[in-house]
């Protein structure tokens, strides 16, 4: 029996095979990962694991024995070299693995600095895999000088951990403000102030010109002419969907591997889930880079492989931990034209509206605002901006029928 082959042993791949077995799928399942370790959580990598507060085994999504116990053929350290969609074969070097259903859960690839600007020097890192963080940890010591390139959530989280570690931290963002692509100016200002208060030298509207060193990075020149000494560089300038196998196999690509509402690619025997997949949403195509999306989409596609025929309906939510602040985001703020602020002591939230429709909520240390906003958005309801802005008002009143 050829069964299901899953390429990518991350959160999406692991969730899909777990759901298949949990729902009674009896066919053969093969889960292929190019890393030498079982599927693991990524969010703690740049936090507790980087600080040495969590052993690698606690990162694992399931004990390794889970896969053998549930008759999942887990193949680790096994990069896939190609797909033959006509013969329905996956190439693993010289080996050929047949499939009935193939699932691409290939995730995403971090953008790196090019060698022309010193991106190939030792000490220049990205934060994506366990191996990446294992390279960073030895130099992550008090007093070390680190340059963070990029003011998105990855860069800001790395800056927070470095500052808490007692390192000298400089963060540069070439856009006019941090989080410019994903958040309102209000959220950017909140986190700018947070990082500055923790000693981060945060420079907006400033890019990196080049890095230099004697084989290892020693200095950085910024595009305003400033030169700073550095011991390491962490690059957080975004990720791109890993579509290499899909492109080589001739599948449709549109901001990722293009799938239909049920998760099928342009080849009906091949599916795609998680960071690498873009799906139809509100008349456009959407690709979400988040753990919740990886899990929810994988579980939906697992059901569809078994014949459920269910369209994937995303319920976007995200989170970020920086210092003692927990940011929780519900919804998507695309197209907002108004932001309403709610502030009650340490609890702050920003509510995004388009005309009278609630789109999203950014909640900082405000789980109630996040919970209420999320429930409203998922129910297709809006919120009264006057109630939102009134810190004395009970937000739960917005949930009343």
Explain the overall architecture:
21% of the residues lie in helices and 30% in strands. The protein has 401 residues and is an alpha/beta fold. The model has no long low-confidence stretch (mean pLDDT 96). The chain contains 9 helices and 26 strands. α1 (11-22) runs parallel beside α7. The longest helix has 15 residues, at 291-305.
Features:
alpha/beta, 26 strands, five-stranded parallel sheet, single chain, 401 residues
Distance between the termini: 52 Å
Mean pLDDT figure: 96
* Total of helices: 9
Task: Please indicate the percent range of residues in DSSP E strands (runs of 2 or more).
Answer: 25-35%
Q: How many DSSP-defined strands?
A: 26
> Structural class of the secondary elements?
alpha/beta
Stretches where pLDDT is under 50 for at least 5 consecutive residues are none
